[in-house]
Design a protein that fits this description.
By secondary structure, this protein is of the alpha+beta class. It has three domains: about 10-90, Phosphorylase Kinase, domain 1; about 95-155 and about 165-280 and about 305-335, Orthogonal Bundle (Transferase(Phosphotransferase), domain 1); about 350-510, Protein Transport Mog1p, Chain A, CATH 3.40.1000. It has helices at about 55-65, 95-105, 110-130, 160-170, 175-180, 185-190, 195-210, 220-230, 235-240, 245-255, 265-280, 315-330, 360-365, 500-505, and strands spanning about 10, 10-20, 25-30, 35-45, 65-70, 75-80, 85-90, 140-145, 155, 350, 385-390, 395, 405-410, 415-425, 440-445, 450-460, 470-480, 490-495.
Length: about 500
Amino acid sequence: MELAGGMTFAGYTIERKLGAGSSGAVYLAQHPRLPRKDALKILAEGSGLIADLPGKFLREADLAARLHHPNLVAVRDRGFEQGRLWIAMQYVDGPDLAALIRHCGGGLDPARAVAVLEQAAHGIDEIHGAGLLHRDVKPANILVAAQPGGPDRVYVTDFGIARAVAELAHQDAPDIAGTLAYAAPEQIRGETLDHLADVYALGCTLFHALTGAVPFPRGSTAAILYAQLHESPPRPSERNPVVPHGLDAVVAKAMAKDPADRYASCGELAAAARAVLESGSGRRSVPNAGPRRNAEPAAGQRVPRRRRVAVGVAVVAAIITLVSAGIALGVGERGTSGAVASANTPVTGTIDAREWGELGYIASVFPDLLPPTPTGAGYQDLSGCFAVGEDQEKVYLDTKQQSVNHLYCMGDLNPVWVVTIACNADRTPILPDELLAGVEGHETWSRASGTGNLFWGKDVFPDNVAAIGGKMAAILDVYFDDPGRNFCRMRVFGDLVSGSELRSRWWLNAPV
């Protein structure tokens, strides 16, 4: 299936193709209801015919959608359409790390490579903290977007489809070799995996970023398998003379054959790499090295593609069952991340308060509800967040106005239109009151996070929020008792018959 601009798929309007691989194609697409563009990945033809794959894919994508972090691409929707599995994700305007490495040829500057690694590590550790594995950590799944006036913003992607990709992998031999270049020995052997397999893959990724080449560049898939299982990790400083000697030991520990000998987390790996750079350990001096083949591009700069080298299909066919089994297995029993995530896995949230400007103090109070950044996605796809000033006009979040204390985030229209949060900057409590025109009910609520009061009913939707202003809407008013949040009030608007319906469809599972 090849989609062109203007065509529709699963309700999305296709704008243009962003890329393609053996697992499927990615398109820039307009959301069917919201004023937002998403990256729509449609898995390869036949994905809906593989036994049990649709169910596995939908379950894994559901779990991935519960993760909210500044360094994770938000998973926004998924489904099954015309015999194809698809997933809608946050669109990131920037190349992947693999493209940046190809453009540089000899590897990124060590400082930039480690900076990218750090952010990717934060995102992957967030996945592990929820009891999930990525299973396909590699440069192609790390996106790098330019931040005007600031450092690159790094996003880890495809963590909601790794199982499906593994089961589709037999359709394209070259992509199998690409994934094996980062696969941990226990993954290749088909053993039960835990988060340390992702640590190994991130170590391979760091080596690739530093040198411009994968750790074990071999002429066949069988040779790659043997090297991953038996050969010692190579030294990046021997491949690229500007790499500090100290990073050799970092890569060696990350790529240890025995998982118990690796760093305990991706964050620990990144911290070790950062420590080498800051201490100057093993700093290299290369006065006559000359310029590298290509200069590094900016994160948003377009980079050329390189044709992949094919490998023997017969060899891949002999090993793909083993590799797919290893990649598709869930989290094992080693360590605290060993618990397999269930449908009740709580939403995880990490707020980057700097991105929220003057409203950072509000966003930090609701990390599991709100997106990590105003452009990300939160609970039930809350997105497009902005501030409203005293004159009821939209205010950019970097505006220095102490009077701005109202935050608005757009819902997915199913059922929520808008969530508004008003907080007192001086942290004086906001007491419950019945401001709704038609109160239907009231309850005192109690959760592990605290206690408070909830009112529900119907009222007129504010004119200043959107074009749908002035209409009657189902509304929830949420108040908090605990001192950490009692200076805020939350109001939720939905297009439903009653406030009680909005309560049952939104509030009961809301991570508040």
